[in-house]
Write a structure and sequence with these properties.
Blueprint (H helix, E strand, L loop, with lengths): L6 H4 L11 E5 L23 E8 L1 H6 L2 H16 L6 H11 L4 E3 L6 E2 L7 H4 L8 E2 L36 H12 L8 H12 L4 E7 L5 E2 L2 H12 L8 H6 L6 E2 L16 E8 L5 H8 L4 E7 L1 H12 L2 H4 L4 E7 L7 H10 L5 E4 L4 E3 L3 H11 L7 E5 L1 E3 L11 H10 L3 E2 L14 H6 L4 E3 L8 E5 L15 H11 L3 E4 L5 E3 L6 H8 L1 H22 L4 H9 L1
Parallel strand pairs: 1-3, 4-5, 9-10, 9-12, 10-11, 14-19, 15-20
Antiparallel strand pairs: 1-2, 6-7, 8-11, 12-18, 13-20, 14-18, 15-16, 17-19
């Protein structure tokens, strides 16, 4: 909700025209005090800090003092230790103000009444009747989709009490206020009691989440028993554990918008239809058109986006003749929450919302060979996937060239391998991931052949829709596919390599998560811990048969 501030209404104090160039309301929570939970490490701020939902700017003076250089230098310095922001631009504003407190002029609280988690805004609207701006600085809004760990379960994301809840229906004033807020109309005066109740209702609003019971179209509602289960699981976590943030991530509930664009596909009557499944973030949008040109079958994609990015994606898709010409692509938005990329959650969302009996579990950076869709359907019949536990492997290759003349046949691909234009996937950095595919045998193979599981194997496979989900404990970079293939092997899936199928990985800049993995020792330590715990869970689930995974890991 935008807000235009009348300079006369603000009633600036004498002396404002000095070095003060930013008018801000103090942050109405303890976020920047760093005491909301153990190991809470916010960006630096002056006292309680300032909220940037409403800002008064003296642009001419900001330009003269070289504001752009000032904030960039501050951001770069802080990011050396913090790695990322938690509250986007607000963190950077506060870091600058911490170093230069003379820049800020504190606006009265009623110019930005903040209804966030842990808010103390009651101290403002308790004493003020003429509120200027109501700021929903939380993903939780009355009667709308809600996200984060345990939101809607009577507790905050971190397990702390969220206070009283609304015990009656919203009043006419509240509903009028909400209608005005949604349509960006001028706000009516808001009595104190209604302001309090709106805030309380917001904090206890209905939850829509990934993985729940049926709710409104495109949503899923979290069941009460699931809330209790999440509360119990979260309470069992140790906040002093150095891997606490990793462990908590698997319990985060995300807002989702299923079938963000129109989807229409009738699975083939012969029961062989297969959906390409993948996940992506905003920086991989450029791959969508190319994949659609290579794969004519149905596609299920989970996109990890912020609210603003979702609108950018909508404009991108609407401007693409290729994407608008395809109605068999399901786009499922999972809204950003937390500090890690929830790669396996995204895969599960995309898998769950396929309409075909088979799935090709791919990644967004790969282009399948031309004709792969029809080839897979024929292979499904040939290998009798309907009545056997098989995972058909599509061999993976890579190019280091951004411009590639894509091979139209296996013979052409082999020629490019020999010339060094293509390589087997991750040959230079992670040979173990795809070595069991046995590329030497594949070169001359004319019929499908079986391979055995080995440590760190992570091929791309075609499986029945009822295959196991990915393990959510693995977020960001590392072991997310390896664990899934291990689970398939434990459930006695047979890995069969297809002799005339291939996919090629296209080059791209390193993801933020792999950068964190490489630069942050604690990240690597926590990943190793999660791996060990996963293997212990495998032993509990599969007994003696799972011992080979521990042995293989020790020998690798």
């Amino acid at each position: 909700m935008g807000s235009r501030i009348n300079m006369e209404e603000v009633k600036l104090k004498p002396g404002y025209a000095g070095q003060q160039v930013l008018g801000l309301v103090e942050n109405q929570s303890d976020w920047y005090l760093g005491n909301l939970w153990k190991n809470h490490r916010p960006w630096p701020a002056l006292g309680r800090g300032y909220n940037t939902g409403v800002i008064l700017l003296l642009l001419d003076k900001l330009r003269k003092m070289k504001w752009e250089q000032m904030w960039r230098l501050t951001a770069e310095r802080e990011l050396m230790g913090m790695l990322s922001t938690s509250l986007a631009d607000q963190d950077i504003f506060n870091a600058v103000i911490k170093q230069n407190p003379f820049l800020v002029y504190q606006l009265p609280c009623f110019w930005n009444v903040q209804l966030s988690d842990h808010t103390r805004s009651e101290q403002c609207y308790r004493d003020v009747s003429d509120l200027k701006v109501i700021h929903w600085n939380s993903p939780k809004k009355l009667f709308t989709v809600v996200s984060s760990t345990l939101r809607g379960c009577g507790r905050s994301p971190l397990g702390h009490s969220r206070g009283p809840t609304l015990q009656r229906e919203p009043s006419g004033v509240q509903l009028s206020f909400l209608t005005a807020q949604r349509t960006l109309q001028p706000l009516p005066p808001l009595p104190q009691d209604d302001a309090r109740d709106i805030k309380r209702a917001m904090l206890s609003g209905p939850v829509t989440a990934v993985g729940g019971s049926a709710g409104p179209p495109g949503q899923a509602v979290l069941k009460p028993h699931r809330c209790l289960q999440l509360q119990k699981q979260l309470s069992e976590l140790d906040e002093d554990d150095l891997c606490y943030e990793f462990r908590r991530e698997r319990f985060t509930v995300h807002r989702t918008h299923l079938y963000f664009l129109h989807y229409e596909h009738e699975p083939a009557a012969d029961g062989t239809d297969v959906t390409l499944v993948a996940q992506l973030s905003m920086d991989r949008l450029q791959m969508l058109e190319a994949i659609c040109k290579h794969w004519e079958g149905p596609i299920s994609l989970a996109l990890y986006l912020s609210d603003a990015e979702a609108q950018q994606f909508l404009r991108y898709a609407q401007g693409s003749e290729v994407l608008m010409g395809r109605h068999n692509v399901g786009y499922h938005i999972v809204y950003k929450e937390g500090q890690f990329y929830p790669v396996n959650l995204l895969r599960n969302v995309a898998m769950k919302h396929t309409s075909t009996p088979y799935m090709f579990l791919s990644d967004i950076d790969f282009l399948p060979m031309y004709g792969l869709y029809e080839y897979l359907r024929k292979s499904i019949v040939q290998l009798d996937l309907a009545s056997t536990k098989k995972a058909m492997i599509v061999p993976a290759f890579e190019t280091l060239r951004y411009r590639l003349s894509f091979p139209k046949s296996k013979a052409e691909l082999l020629s490019m391998l020999d010339m060094g234009t293509l390589f087997t996937f991750r040959y230079h950095v992670w040979t173990k991931g795809h070595a069991p595919t046995n590329f030497a045998k594949w070169r001359t193979a004319t019929t499908p052949y079986r391979v055995e599981w080995e440590a760190d194997f992570e091929p791309y496979v075609v499986v029945r829709r009822d295959c196991p989900e990915y393990d959510r404990r693995f977020v960001g970079f590392g072991w997310n596919k390896v664990a899934h293939i291990m689970e398939l092997d434990a459930q006695e899936y047979e890995f069969t390599v297809l002799p005339n199928a291939y996919m090629i990985h296209m080059p791209h800049a390193p993801s933020f998560d792999i950068t964190k993995f490489r630069s942050n020792k604690q990240y690597r330590v926590c990943l190793k811990t999660l791996k060990e715990e996963f293997q212990q869970d495998m032993s509990r689930r599969h007994g003696f048969a799972a011992l080979k995974y521990l042995t293989a890991e020790n020998n690798s």
